[in-house]
Structures are given as C-alpha cells and as structure tokens.
Amino acid sequence: MKKALIIVDVQNDFCEGGALAVPGANEVIPYINLLMEENEYDQIVLTQDWHPANHKSFASNNGQKVGESIILNGVPQFMWPDHCVQGTFGAEFHKDLNRDKVTHIIQKGKNTEIDAYSGFQDNNHFMKTGLDDFLKYHEIQLLEIVGLAMDYCVKFTCTDAVANGYVTCLHFNGTRAVNVKPDNARDAIFEMLQKGVTVLG
C-alpha cells in the first residue's frame, strides 16, 4: 500500500511569534522531521495557506473584530487576524521544517471570497485544490497527517481524506490545536474518530 505524509500549514504565522500562533506549534516540528527521517513515504506533501491580502476571512477586511463570525457565501466564517498573506514572511514555511524530501506543495485559500481549511477543497466544497488528483495519480492509498491546526485545517484535511477513500491516520504528537474554545481539540478528535480517522499516539 503506497503511503503519503501530508504536512498541513507549518508556516510562520501559525508558529511562535506569528500573527495566528497556535499554542505549542513549534513543538511539532522536530516530531514531523523525525517521521520523515525514520519512515519511507512514497510522497510527502506540504499544504500552504496562501491568502490574498483582501481575503474575506480576515476581520480587518470586514469591519469586524477577531473572534466574531459572519456568514460568507452561505457558510459561517470565523473572523481571523490577517495571516499567511501571499508573498509575506508569515506565509513561508517555518525554517526548522526539513523540506529535503518534500515532493509536492498544495496552496489553498487563494480565492478571496471563500476560506479553505482542508488541503483538499474550499469550505464551500466548490473548488478542489488538486491534492486528491495528485495522490490518486501516484496511487496513494494511505495518508498520515500532521501539522497545524488540529481543530481547523488538520481536522478538515483528515475528514476529507476519509471521504475521498483514503486510509487516514492522524499523528496526535504531530499536531496542536488553536482552541478558540477550551474543548475544541477534544471535540475535533471525537469528530475525526467518528468519521473514520485513526488517531496515532
């Protein structure tokens, strides 16, 4: 069974000191590097939040406060601080992430009007990113998933992976949660387990 490692959004803005820093984010980087060192993957894919500066998920572009919610194109949208803007330092991958074995990069969140948490598609399920096509072309059947953040982009990437027919495993030690609300991480794990994601310790 061919397998791929999907590394979700290990970018400066989600790491320590970033515009949308995930608590403990930097702790997952050595773990992810070790996975790549100790395992043989047929493909290693990075996903990258790649927002235009006028993205509608940014509170600043809607006259809203960070943490508020609006309806954006028919779906609830949490208002985030400006983050991972195309071409900025915040959008770059963290320097400590070893990219020597990376075979492919998927950029997401490029459409101003629609956010994209999942590495597979936008939040409205209108546009695919090309990740599924890439994996199917390379006959990948098993996905191991790590990265940031567990209760948003990692969760939706995992559940979409299952929906697309992949055997899907989340490395718990390779992810951290935003935890806007204290139970978000727990709820995300429960939801992933319900949908058929295997959570590895």
From TrEMBL:
One Pfam match: Isochorismatase
Superkingdom per UniProt: Bacteria
Alphabetic keyword roster: Hydrolase, Metal-binding, Pyridine nucleotide biosynthesis
Assigned EC number: 3.5.1.19
Record-annotated membrane-spanning stretches: none
UniProt domain Isochorismatase-like: residue ranges: 4-200
BP GO terms, sorted: pyridine nucleotide biosynthetic process
Metabolic or biological pathway, per its Swiss-Prot or TrEMBL entry: Cofactor biosynthesis; nicotinate biosynthesis; nicotinate from nicotinamide: step 1/1
GO terms assigned for molecular function: metal ion binding; nicotinamidase activity
Protein family per UniProt: Belongs to the isochorismatase family.
Cited NCBIfam families: PRK11609.1 (NF008623)
Name of protein: Nicotinamidase
Gene source species: Chryseobacterium limigenitum
Lineage: Bacteria, Pseudomonadati, Bacteroidota, Flavobacteriia, Flavobacteriales
